[in-house]
């Protein structure tokens, strides 16, 4: 993993009990899901929503060691969620992943639930019982989702109409958002390149700086200092772009109208984002997914038509509806609403034959 120097200058280690051993990440064979920075100077770091670690564990007890800023995580064993952990800050945070297993191989997944604008999370290593071992979990196909707080699944498990930002952490669950639902239906990992408040041209306050067009090839969500993503993995089987709600909020006037010059700016930036995706993955199908905002639908449809007119194929249009009563946490979809959105996306994938779907998935 290119972490030899970091190991030799090894920083914190967790407290161990009798019969336990610490396995630094440089000695662990794991599958990192999402965008992780890796170098000889630092442990792997990640910050985009939904990043995950997947291992095949043969042993009895396993814990994970992080440097973290109080985020929340899902733990699953053999595909079944077993715990939610989180809320701790520190240079050495330890969370249990499994205990009392039967010593046979089990697939364990550790996945970020929430979005955070704080420093990236660092994966330091694992604590396991003596004689246990880690192997890399099998690879899966990947679907990349470029989006905003809807794609993040911000606040989707909340029951309150509004709540402060930090209180959204434990009630945000990327795993129960439409991105993961669609990816799971296609036996793929959802790679979240999504950020609350952002658009392709403007954020929700109208600021054009560091839009999703700018951030798309960043390794870390909040800063270009984390380096550019290498795009060295096998390409995703699909890229879904779901932007427009924040652009509309940032571009509209007091009457709720976006003038043609601003609409043209949105379309131009959208074309640039498609071109940037294609510069790395020339043949990947792209689904331009419009939200329920009519302006976003009209202009996203224009983008898709203009791509086709320019003989740039493989860009498809889909949209999702607004579902009355299905929103919490300052206007964000509930888990049930995410399910409805996912079903509309899968129906569009089936209708346009973008990807093969298992029987019955995506059918009306």
UniProtKB/TrEMBL annotation:
Domain named SGNH hydrolase-type esterase: residues = 145-339
A molecular function (GO) term: carboxylic ester hydrolase activity
SUPFAM superfamilies reported for this sequence: SGNH hydrolase (SSF52266)
Question: Which superkingdom does the taxonomy of this entry point to?
Answer: Bacteria
Please state every residue range assigned to the domain named Carbohydrate esterase 2 N-terminal.
33-138
InterPro entries annotated for this entry?
A: CE2_N, CtCE2-like_dom, PCW_deacetylase/CE, SGNH_hydro, SGNH_hydro_sf
Query: What PANTHER family does the record point to?
Result: ESTERASE, SGNH HYDROLASE-TYPE, GDSL-LIKE LIPASE/ACYLHYDROLASE DOMAIN PROTEIN (AFU_ORTHOLOGUE AFUA_2G00620)
Please give the name of this protein: Uncharacterized protein
Annotated organism of origin = Luteolibacter pohnpeiensis
Taxonomy of origin reads:
Bacteria, Pseudomonadati, Verrucomicrobiota, Verrucomicrobiia, Verrucomicrobiales
